[in-house]
Amino acid sequence: MRRLLLLRHAKSDWSGSQPDHGRPLAARGRAAAPQLGHYMARHGLVPDRVLCSTAVRARETWELLVGAFDAPPPVSFLDNLYDVDAKALLAVVKQTPADVHSLLLIGHNPGIEDLAALLIAAGDIETRQRLLEKFPTAALAVIDFPLDDWAKLHPEAGRLDRFVTPRLLEEATD
After folding, report:
1. Which CATH superfamily is domain 2-11+21-173 in?
2. Mean pLDDT for each consecutive 10-residue tract of the chain (174 residues)?
């Protein structure tokens, strides 16, 4: 079995004049990322490996999230996760070594949302519909695959285990 965790970076700051790749997180993003990290740690969603976009907002999301983990997994920062489509992301995931059972991919929309839609064939219908309607910043999709090797990953092979958004986490703590 393989588990893919797809995370869209947390909310970024649009107030500066820096290029898109260099945009940092906004205050809301800096609050959401550690909250999601604590959720992941509490629910046993700590990956074996992490692939993260090199964009500043993705790296900052990872840095704020990983503090919740007892033992941080190895992370690779990849340029080819920035400004790419679902098929390109799928190609990257398929290169994951077979000894990695749980992989976290931190990236951007529309690629992350499109990849989730491409891979999911089963799971709670209402949750799947929520994901298809909107994949907000700092949202996490957890998709399980009955595969023994990432290289065998293909469209509609997965079952959506859960879809967590910052709003759902806020409502749960109110």
Report:
1. Phosphoglycerate mutase-like (3.40.50.1240)
2. 95 75 81 93 95 94 94 94 94 96 96 96 92 94 95 95 88 62
